[in-house]
From TrEMBL:
It is found in: Cell membrane. It comes from Sphingobacterium faecale. The chain crosses the membrane at residues 33-51, 58-79, 85-104. This is Multidrug efflux SMR transporter. It is a multi-pass membrane protein. Coiled coil: none annotated.
Amino acid sequence: MKHYLFLAAAILFEVIGSSFLKKTEQFTKPIPSILFVCSLGLSFYLLSYALRGVPMGIAYAIWSAFGIVIISAVGYFVYKESLDLPAILGIGFIILGVVIINLFSKSSAH
């Protein structure tokens, strides 16, 4: 279970970092750029701990799926970016894929 906590923390810091990416303005703004690099570095560090107990493919599927969903919400609510129906459906399929992996795959470590 602790490996999934590391994975959750990795996702959190990946989303924080990605949220600052737009604010870096192509890395011309120092503070957002530093926050981006530090958050992503910490995210990968935490992901490496998660990989001690979660298979790499499963961890990456969960990490990327949750990252996509949360960063899409950040884009919508913080940056006022819109999502059309195909984007929402695609995100839904990504979530469905992770659910299928976790419920039915023998590769998943639970």
